[in-house]
C-alpha cells in the first residue's frame, strides 16, 4: 500500500514534456490529445520540436474507401498548432516574468533546445 502511494507521488512530479513530437494532419485529434496533456512539473507540457506530416489522405485512404470518407480537414491541424504555439508563448512569458520578479536568470529547459 505504501508503495502504491509513493509511486503515485512520484508520478505526480514526473515531467512529461517531450523533445520532439510528430503531428499528422490526417489525425489532428491525436495531436490535440498530446497538446492538451498537462505536465505535473511545468503545468504547460512542452512538445519540443514539432514535426508536421502533411498528407492529403491517410495511408488507409489509398485502400479503403471508408477511411477516405473519414478524412479530416487538413486545416484542423494548422489551427491546433496555432493554439499550441500561442499557449507556449504565453507560458514562456509568464514564466520569465515570474523569474524576473524573483531575480533569477532564465534557464532554458534543455528539452527545448
Ligand atoms: Zn515538464
Describe this structure in words.
The protein is 46% helix and 9% strand. By secondary structure, it is mainly α. It has one domain. A two-stranded parallel ribbon has the order 1-2. Helix 2 (28-35) links the parallel strand 1 and strand 2 (49-53). Helix 2 runs parallel beside helix 4. The longest helix is centred in the last third of the chain and has 28 residues, at 74-101. The chain is flat and about 45 Å long. The model has no long low-confidence stretch (mean pLDDT 79).
Summarize the structure.
The protein has 113 residues and is mainly alpha-helical. It has four helices and two strands; from the N terminus they run αβαβαα. The protein is flat, with a radius of gyration of 18 Å.
SSE diagram, text form:
Layout: H1 2-12, E1 20-24, H2 28-35, E2 49-53, H3 65-69, H4 74-101
Parallel strand pairs: 1-2
This protein binds zinc ion.
Going by helix content, strand content and strand pairing, the class is mainly alpha
What kind of oligomer do you see?
Answer: single chain
Number of domains: 1
Strand content: 5-15%
What gyration radius follows from the Cα positions, in whole Å? 18 Å
The mean pLDDT is 79
Reported for the largest beta sheet, the result is: 2 strands, parallel
Helix content: 40-55%
Instruction: Report the count of strand segments.
Output: 2
Uncertain residue segments: none
Q: What overall form do the CA principal axes indicate? A: flat
Q: Helix and strand string, N-terminal first?
A: HEHEHH
- The end-to-end distance, rounded to whole angstroms, is 40 Å
Instruction: Provide the spatial order of strands within the biggest beta sheet.
Output: 1-2
Helical run tally: 4
Bound molecules: zinc ion
